[in-house]
Amino acid sequence: KQWYQRRVRGETFEEEVRYQKQSLERSAATSTEKKERELADIESRLRERKSTLKSIDRAVKEKEGSLRSLHAEEEQNVRQSEAVKASLEKQLENRNEQISRNEDKLRTLTADITELPQPEEEVENSRVKSNN
What is the distance between the alpha carbons of residues 31 and 25, in angstroms, rounded to a whole number? Predict the structure, then answer.
């Protein structure tokens, strides 16, 4: 229909070819610009996502470092607790031995005391000796 209208206006075939060529060039340029804008948009989103991934990676590495630090601290606390426990057990053992030695001394002293003459017996013995 367009070709017919141009024909009626007296346009030549060469003019029509030139018009079609220009139309195609404009269409191609518009399409290329559109594709370039889409590509630029995609590249922009890609840069944003890369930046986000880098931030996530940094955060993950920080958390991993924190976890390693906490794990090392926990292991140190366990070792310290075990050392304190061993020390307390040794102290308890030493105290029990001391108590046992003190009980032995107490039994010995108690036996020695019971073997001593009673004050009444001493008085009696000293009278007998003085009478002799």
Answer: 10
